[in-house]
Write a structure and sequence with these properties.
By secondary structure, the protein is of the alpha/beta class. Among the domains are: about 10-175 and about 185-200, Toll/interleukin-1 receptor homology (TIR) domain (Rossmann fold, 3-Layer(aba) Sandwich); about 240-370, Rossmann fold. The chain contains 30 helices and 10 strands. Strand 9 (about 315-325) and strand 10 (about 330-340) form a beta hairpin. The chain is globular and about 90 Å long.
């Protein structure tokens, strides 16, 4: 139901405008969309670059069926073209106009240039109504007022759209290049009377939005916790914002790393603001390329607001638009466009963060907004962003190697660039932990040197402490790693990665309750990352919370069903929960054959299928003995063969296996804990004094 009235959701959905445009006209269409939304109009405006497929097709058909006004954006880019998704949208709208008499005038064509109506190749229904000309998408108050009037009362479209005059609109719209908010359902009941003065509407709606945002009773931010199957949905804190990846609007679409980097910088800055909940980068970027609307995104990220925008770069010139949107209403709380030189990028980031904080009226630590001044060399910063983008999306070793190359090039230009040293340290660590590349002593020692350099240059840089903690963790120096994590969290209380490492350290140290609490915070800060739920699942499993552990693991697999080693780890947990049949099902679906073979041996053993287990184990030992030595040890531990189990565990320690940190808490090694060799193994790992 609509707030304050008796209209149902369908009637609200019906009073909406669908804008259809060619990709070449995206910027102009965005200006029209932004102007309409600022007047409180609901606009369906698909910006997905991954158009196509059944899901997209069904959604587009539904929206064109349900909208009140269909607005085709016509230009030289569309008038003579027969291909493109906009043509499918036009055909669907034309079909609707012919099928139902009441819909024949629901089409409101907008022309961006001097394209003439006679002879233009558009559907016949587009010629039955006059066109409105909005050069380059500049939208006047008069046009906006007419659209609001058409949406104000049922049936108004039929009487008003047909009487529109084809004229060149003038007036002041939003700045060129503004990127609209994604689709949002309106929760305000629209006036059924025609509204003539758009300025009055804008003022009233702005007042309502500000009143609701700033003057209402705010829900205080609570300690984040994950909702499990039987738990109620936690309240969304008023002081919360998700930063979505900014859209690359550059002509060649080759600046995505730059637009992503800007988003990450803003996330990093805002997470350091007291009382403000900001989901981590991985969860916010989960929606990149997807067609979910703002309310859906906000609900999944558990935030009240969304910050989005675009970046257009040409040489050293930048145009950055940013806007803060209230998720439940779709209203713009704040928006701005910046036309600057690349050298001003850090100042722009500061201004955007400060504006968001001011709009949300958040109490700041020290009454100041965090500032970003990583380097005075913009070329070094660009190289850093390229390395950061590769690191964040690394799918193979070569991606990490390229990220390392970019970081080193940035440091050649600015040896005092602390963030680049931190990025270099973490990527070097990853080459060992994820790909077993090189000798672990050399790789980790080198990474430690890089992290130390970052700390020397900027002791107040959270990423530097995090990089050092990562290295120390994999060198099994648990106490010093915990110290670095505490430093990172003191400087950046919203750093999800820090909570992840902290939870793993707590497991190694036997503090399972603390591990659960830390993992819950991790998931709350970064709720759409599969491995975060895996961390929580392990912590819950060790603390004896079996049902919740399985729920967390199932959530992990739901988020990333084809991620390497994830189903293997879920099956591991299911074996600990004495569910061998379910474990076998998960092991069989593991995409990484190295772990699938040894995992099947574990599951077959648990089911008493010894011959099949022997074959799977023999295959794992023959092909991957220096990769899966830890899981092989677990197979022998569960066969009550401690000699073979310790043989393989000793090899895992010798190779500094990335799984070795599981030894102190792993339920599948339970049978080994009474053996004196187990304590010796823990001492080797530094897990006991």
């Amino acid at each position: 139901m609509v707030e304050g009235g008796g209209e149902d959701e369908a009637s609200v959905r019906a009073r909406a405008v669908f804008i259809s445009y060619a990709s070449q006209d995206a910027a102009a269409a965005a200006r029209i969309c932004s102007a309409l939304r600022q007047a409180g109009v609901e606009v369906w405006f698909d910006q997905s670059e991954l158009r196509g497929g059944d899901v997209w097709d069904q959604r587009i058909r539904r929206e064109i069926r349900d909208c009140t006004l269909f607005m085709p954006v016509i230009s030289a880019n569309t008038a003579s073209r027969h291909e493109g998704y906009f043509r499918l949208e036009w055909d669907l709208a034309d079909q609707r106009s012919h099928m139902m008499a009441r819909d024949r005038a629901f089409i409101v064509p907008v022309c961006l240039d001097a394209t003439k109506e006679p002879g233009t190749d558009v559907p016949e229904s587009f010629h039955r109504v006059q066109w409105t000309r909005l050069p380059d998408g500049e939208t006047s108050p008069a046009f906006t007022a007419r659209i609001v009037a058409l949406l104000g009362a049922p049936g108004a479209a039929a009487s008003a759209a047909g009487s529109s005059h084809s004229a060149t609109q003038t007036g002041h719209g939003p700045p060129p290049g503004s990127t609209p908010a994604a689709t949002a359902k309106s929760t305000l009941r629209r006036n059924r009377l025609a509204i003539a003065v758009t300025a009055a509407i804008t003022i009233i709606l702005a007042y309502v939005a500000v009143d609701r945002l700033w003057l209402s009773k705010h829900t205080p931010a609570e300690k984040p916790a994950i909702a499990v199957a039987s738990a109620p949905t936690p309240a969304i804190p008023e002081k919360s914002v998700a930063v979505l990846p900014f859209v690359d609007m550059s002509e060649k679409k080759d600046q995505e790393y730059f637009s992503d980097g800007l988003s990450e910088e803003l996330i990093d800055m805002l997470t350091r603001v007291s009382d403000l909940r900001v989901p981590a980068r991985t969860s916010s970027f989960y929606f990149k390329g997807k067609s979910e609307d703002i309310p859906t995104i906000a609900k999944r990220l558990m935030v009240a607001h969304v910050l989005e925008g675009s970046v257009r770069r040409s040489g050293t010139r930048l145009r950055i638009t940013a806007q803060l949107v209230r998720a439940d209403t779709g209203y713009h709380v704040w928006s701005e466009t910046y036309d600057r030189e690349l050298d001003d990028i850090f100042k722009i980031q500061d201004e955007i963060a400060a504006a968001v904080v001011a709009a949300l009226k958040v109490t700041l630590l020290g009454s100041r907004t965090p500032r970003v001044t990583p380097t005075a060399n913009t070329e070094a910063y660009t190289l850093y962003l390229q390395g950061q983008a590769l690191s964040a999306n690394a799918a193979q070793l070569s991606d990490l190697e390229r990220a390392i190359k970019f970081a080193k090039q940035a440091l050649d230009l600015d040896p005092g660039f602390a963030r680049a040293w931190g990025l270099l340290a973490r990527n070097c660590t990853y080459t060992w932990t994820y790909y077993t590349q090189g000798d672990y002593r050399q790789v980790l020692d080198e990474a430690r040197h890089f992290a130390q350099r970052a700390l020397e240059l900027d002791p107040a840089l959270p990423d530097a402490h995090l990089a050092m903690a990562d290295v120390l963790f994999h060198q099994w120096e648990w106490g010093p790693a915990a110290t670095e994590i505490n430093q990172a969290l003191a400087l950046d209380p919203g750093n999800a990665d820090a909570f992840g490492i902290a939870a793993e350290i707590a497991l190694v140290q036997g503090r399972s309750d603390a591990a659960v609490e830390l993992a819950r915070k991790l998931v709350a800060l970064d709720p759409l990352v599969a491995w975060n739920y895996a961390t929580l699942g392990n912590a819950l499993l060790v603390s004896g919370q079996s049902a919740e552990a399985e729920t967390a693991w199932r959530r992990a697999v739901d988020l990333a069903p084809t991620m390497s080693q994830l189903r293997f780890c879920f099956a591991w947990a299911l074996l600990a929960l004495h569910k061998p049949a379910a474990a076998l099902d998960q092991m069989a679906q593991e995409v990484d054959e190295r772990y699938r073979d040894v995992g099947l041996a574990l599951a077959f053993d648990a089911l008493g299928r010894k011959e099949e287990a022997d074959r799977a184990l023999a295959a794992a030992e023959a092909k991957y003995s220096r990769v899966v030595e830890y899981p092989i040890a677990a197979v022998y531990a569960n066969r009550n063969d401690p000699d073979q189990a310790f043989k393989w565990l000793d090899l895992a320690c010798e190779l500094h296996d990335g799984w070795a940190w599981w030894v102190p808490w792993d339920p599948l090694l339970k049978s080994l804990r009474v053996d004196p060799r187990f304590d010796a193994l823990l001492r080797k790992l530094g897990a006991v004094d």
